[in-house]
Amino acid sequence: MDQSPTIAQALSEVGPRLKRLRTLRGVTLAALAEATGISKSTLSRLEAGQRRPSLEILLPIAQAHQVPLDELVGAPEVGDPRVRLKPHRVNGNTVLPLTRQPGSIQSYKMVLPAGRSTPELCTHEGYEWLYVLSGRLRLVLADHDLVLGPGEVAEFETRLPHWFGSTGEGPVEVLSLFGRQGERMHVRARPNHGSGA
Question: N or C: which terminal CB in the chain sees fewer CB atoms within 10 Å?
Answer without folding.
Answer: N
